[in-house]
Structures are given as C-alpha cells and as structure tokens.
Design goal:
single chain; 286 residues; alpha+beta; de novo design (two linked rop proteins); Glutaredoxin; 2 domains; two-stranded antiparallel ribbon; 10 helices; 6 strands; disordered C terminus
Length: 286
C-alpha cells in the first residue's frame, strides 16, 4: 500500500470517528463525558428535520457507508469502494449545502466530516480515476434531495395571518401553548390576529417546536413537511434573538410596524396596560 493510499485511508478513518461521535451526540449518550460540538449551529443541525432519514439518525447511514468503504478497500475491492465513497461525498455535499443555505448554520463537526471525505476521496482516486465517479457524486446529491423533499405534504387550507393587519406575534415554546388559548378571546374582541411563532426552549425541544410549526402550515405534519417548516423555525429563532427577550415574547404589530414588545412572566399585566384595560379583566390567573 503506497503513501497516497495510506493518507486517504487515514482521512477516511478520521471521518468514521467523526461520524460515530456525531451519532453518539444525536443519541445524547452521557457516557461520552463531553459535548462533541457545543455551538448553536451544531444543535440546529443535530435536531433539525434533516438529521433523520426513514426514522433513523442520518449519521448511522454515514457510519455504515464509510465503514463499508474502508472494509472493501482492505478486501481489495477498491473500485466498488470508490463508487460508494463518491456517492457518500455527494450526499454530504448536499447536507452541507442545506446546512449553509437553508438552516443558515455552520456546524464545525459537519464541515470537518465533509473535509475528511473529500481528502480521502481525492487521495484514493489519484491512481484510479473514473469519470463515472462524478455521476455517482451527482446521484448522491440529487438522490438525497429527492428523499428529503419527496412531495408528500399538503398545505393547510386555513389562512395564516395578514402581515399588514393588526397582529400579535407570540414567540413561545410548545410547553407554553396554553398562552394561545388565553389570548384568543382577548384578540377577537380587539380585532387582532394571533400569530404563534414556536421556538425551542432547549435543544431537546427543537423537534417538538418544529412539529407545532408544521401543524400550522400543513394539513398533516409528515417528515417532508417538517423539513419545509425548518426554515420558518430558523427565522423565528433569529427574530427572537433580535428582540433579546425571554419567553413568552409578544410583539404587537399594526400595518406591519412594531408597536409594543412584551416578554417575560408579567406579559398579561403589560398587555392589559398597553390596551388600557382593567387589571386581569380578560385574563385569569394560570
């Protein structure tokens, strides 16, 4: 085995280790003793609708595929290993594209994994280049897109809200959904529309928040609907940061302009004061 092949295999070995660490992070295995990736971008990717495929963590497929590539290489079935590796590079390139331009995050662990795959692929094909390898890369890229966005969802028939009307946007976690029931009666009397904007309270509740957003936008929250809703959830998170408030956070808007921002546990009193209502006239104590 030449030096070039050794470098390629070492790079693929690093990629396999990274895939295993990402898989353990996805399962929240406490025995690891440390967080593999503590950045917010990592949490967004790990708990997004793109982290699972057919009900299994996508990192599991990466482990199996990359492990198969290394095994085939040692069994001297190098050409088959290269085609699988090319397909895997295409898949990871697609996931990185989704991460950068759809989820708007930059997960260091994912970038390191893609880098290890690319380096391993380049050093592995130096002496065995086949033009058809690029077709397998394209197949991985487009095939994964088809699996993630297979058209199996229908938009909800009920209107969302009029952005130019009188609206109260409510940033809240799924665990605070009771707030919406309290607001509905009050808003109907004041001529305001209610716009729930769910956000995760912590990384573990991200899937739950994504599910609530999908229920609002689609008639049935399929896996494809969850992935389409991912962009909306990310916008909710980014706008909540701009307001720099705590949950629940209420934004009163009229004709598209922000009139009042209310946050924290005293939101009832502040909202009543804004509308000049008698204390606790519309709201009952929780």
């Amino acid at each position: 085995m030449g030096r070039v092949e050794v470098i390629g295999l070492l790079s693929l070995g690093v990629g396999l280790v990274l895939a295993v660490l990402a898989f353990l992070e996805k399962l929240r295995v406490e025995e690891v003793g440390f967080d593999v990736c503590r950045s917010e971008s990592c949490e967004v990717v790990q708990y997004s609708g793109f982290s699972d495929l057919f009900g299994f963590p996508i990192t599991l497929f990466a482990i199996l595929a990359l492990g198969g590539v290394i095994l085939l290489w040692f069994l001297r079935r190098k050409e088959k290993a290269l085609f699988i590796l090319a397909f895997l590079v295409g898949c990871e390139a697609y996931l990185t594209f989704i991460e950068f331009y759809y989820l708007e995050g930059k997960c260091p662990l994912c970038i390191a994994f893609l880098s290890s795959l690319v380096i391993g692929f380049v050093f592995s094909v130096l002496q065995r280049f086949r033009p058809s390898l690029f077709w397998f890369m394209a197949l991985g890229f487009l095939g994964l897109h088809f699996l993630f966005f297979f058209p199996r969802f229908d938009l909800a028939y009920t209107p969302y809200f009029d952005p130019k009307g009188k609206v109260i946007e409510v940033f809240l976690s799924p665990r605070e959904s009771r707030i919406l029931k309290e607001l509905q009666g009050f808003l109907s009397q004041r001529g305001f529309q209610l716009c729930p904007r769910f956000v995760p309270q912590d990384p573990s509740s991200r899937r739950e928040a994504l599910l609530e957003m999908a229920k609002m936008l689609f008639s049935e929250p399929s896996e494809e609907a969850l992935r389409v809703s991912e962009r909306t959830l990310r916008r909710n998170e980014e706008e909540l940061k701009n307001f720099n408030g705590s949950l629940p956070l209420l934004v009163v808007k009229e004709k598209g302009e922000v009139k009042k921002v209310i946050s924290g546990p005293n939101w009832r009193e502040e909202l009543e004061e804004y509308f000049s209502l008698p204390p606790l006239f519309f709201f009952s104590s929780p």
